[in-house]
Amino acid sequence: MLISHIKQYTYQWQGITVDGKKTLGEIKAVTLKIAKMQLMKQGIIVLKITKKWPISFKNFTKKISSEDMTHFFQQFANLMTAGIPIVQSINILQFIQEKHALQILISAIQIDIQSGKTLTQSLKKYPHYFDCFICHLSEVGEQTGKLALMLQRIALTQEKKWYFKNKIKQALLYPSLLFTVATLVSVIMLIVIVPRFAELFQNMQGKLPGLTVWIIACSTWLRENIWKCLLEIVLIFSLFYLSLKNSSYLQHRIDRLFFKLPFFGKFLQKIILSRFAYSLATTEYAGFPLDQGLKITMNITTNALYAQEIAKLPIAIAQGKQLHKALQQSPLFPPLLIQMVKIGEESGSIDNMLLKVANFYESEIDHFVSTLSHLLEPLIMVVLGVLIGGLVIALYLPIFKLGMIV
């Protein structure tokens, strides 16, 4: 009677039968050891066995990265292309995942599909992970019987998204490193090293050089106000983040400011244009009407300025304008994109032309990141040399002056 009340857990396993065939499944047992013993009695050699955790939104606390989602869709597309049924494909996907958060998400999708829901209906329940673009392509794939093909397109889209994120990180890595290292070294010198030199200089006769006096004054002020400064910086950034999140006007102003930055403005614009061209090409390939494809593309555009301009395009299309003429109404779309779209509309292959535009901008992005990394390497050395060298010179100037007097 007591045994019936003992809690049992579900374990997912993968193993080999006595015939040498690979197999997998689920088994309920009180402990992992008992689960293995039960499988051994069935003549199964266990290769891998893991506990299946209960599905709950509380389990979605860990963020699933773009890289993980890209690999998920790539694996999903490969399994479906190989002719494996969707239920079995999802079961395999859940079993081979190493990230617990992704296992939980796939388990939730598996339960939905086993209960009779479609893949699209399940994906729509988790908009944080699957945007409208993914859901629309999944729905088209299910309706046309080309789910494997649409999953391949989704995988490529996720790969592009991951690619652009990495390119932005690469472009910002050196400036961020420069700023962080220079700030940390300067603060440490001002708080720790400069006060000791200041004590030494108190016993020296003669007037200190102006640069040294200024450095000592900065050190004194920083030591007295360091916590106040840190608190103010945290408050300023917090208020800025909340304002940016809740104010569309501020978002527009910040996005416009980014485009005016030297070097980085053009770089960010090319990333947005490449994503726009690739996303719109994918919706065209999937068979969406042009106005609907533009609406889907608008919803996944992260830049407020471009989202606003793309929102105007379906209205212009509904009024009978061609896409290239609608694009001409906005200064945000360059002549290259407009001309390629025009050629695509005239030849009836707008998706191919958009893909060529996306690939062109990708090559430009790669070239920019490569050039930037080569330019910033010596710049980092120069800036660090000026900052640290300036502090060192300011501290040793009085000593040099004293040596000259002696």
Concise overview:
The chain is mainly alpha-helical and 406 residues long. The chain contains 15 helices and three strands.
Characterise this structure.
There is one protein chain. Helix 6 (132-144) runs antiparallel to helix 7 (147-202) and helix 11 runs antiparallel to helix 12 (304-318). The protein is mostly helical and 406 residues long. It is flat and about 90 Å long. Strands 2-1-3 form a 3-stranded antiparallel β-sheet. The chain is built from 15 helices and 3 strands. The longest helix is centred in the middle third of the chain and has 56 residues, at 147-202. The chain has helices at 32-41, 66-81, 86-96, 100-114, 119-123, 132-144, 147-202, 210-246, 248-259, 264-286, 290-299, 304-318, 323-327, 335-347, 350-405; strands spanning 9-16, 22-29, 45-51. Strand 1 (9-16) and strand 2 (22-29) form a beta hairpin. It folds into 3 domains: 3-52; 58-159, Receptor-associated Protein, CATH 1.20.81; 174-406, Receptor-associated Protein, CATH 1.20.81.30.
What's the helical proportion of residues? over 70%
CATH architecture of the largest domain: Up-down Bundle
Proportion of strand residues: 5-15%
E-strand count: 3
Largest sheet composition: 3 strands, antiparallel
Low-confidence stretches: 1-5, 55-61
Q: What's the oligomerization state?
A: single chain
- N-C termini distance: 99 Å
The number of domains is 3
Number of helices: 15
Output the structural class.
mainly alpha
Strand order of the largest sheet: 2-1-3
Order of helices and strands: EEHEHHHHHHHHHHHHHH
Corresponding CATH superfamily of the largest domain: Type II secretion system (T2SS), domain F
The CATH class of the largest domain is identified as Mainly Alpha
CATH topology title of the largest domain: Receptor-associated Protein
